[in-house]
Amino acid sequence: MQSGLITMSDLEAEKAAAAEAAVNEVRDGMLIGLGSGSTAAYAVKAVGRRAAQGLRVDCVATSVATEMLAKSVGLTITPFDDVSRVELTIDGADEVDSSLRAIKGGGGALLREKVVAAASERVIIIVDSSKPVAQLGRFKLPIEVLPFASAWVLRALIEIGGNPTRRVRADGTPFRTDQGNFILDAAFQVISDPVHLATRLARVPGIVEHGLFLDEIDSVFIGRAEGVEIIHRPPSGSNNK
Question: I need a surface site. Which of 19, 32, 126, 226 has the fewest CB within 10 A?
Answer without folding.
Answer: 226
